[in-house]
Please model this.
Amino acid sequence: MLEQAKKQFGVKVYAPQEINALKEGKNFFWASSDGDDNRLNICMYTIPLASYSESSLIAIRDSVMEINIRGYADNQYMATVAETVMTKELNLNGQRVVEMRGLWEMKNDLMGGSFISHARIDSAKNQVLVAEGFVYAPNKAKRKYIRSLEAALRTIKLK
Model:
């Protein structure tokens, strides 16, 4: 279980065992593996319910990632490749979840990969909890990594 999710957002998530590094931010955390040839990542953040709409999910994701997931240079940050994104609505454990899948890139760098995102409305706290998994695995098939991150995201339950 990823303890930071419980500590910061009050939810349980069962993450892949190799995820062992952590970076905290305001209403945000990023947990990552430290593999040499691939990295699995999970991040969580909240947004006010009033600023949420399905059509704004990519813009919200980009603003959160630009602040929290930076590259080595000042002009490097994570961004969504918008034209690759597919969105659908799911019912997981009786909860409505908006799922996004697509590709991410590091602006002004040569990094990129696949991501999956789940947005859940938390009416009790008047906010939206967004949990994401993303992969960096150059020259490797990413399907098995994304599947393990998807399985982790599906373990999340709001109270």
About this structure: The longest helix spans residues 57-68. The chain has a mean pLDDT of 94.
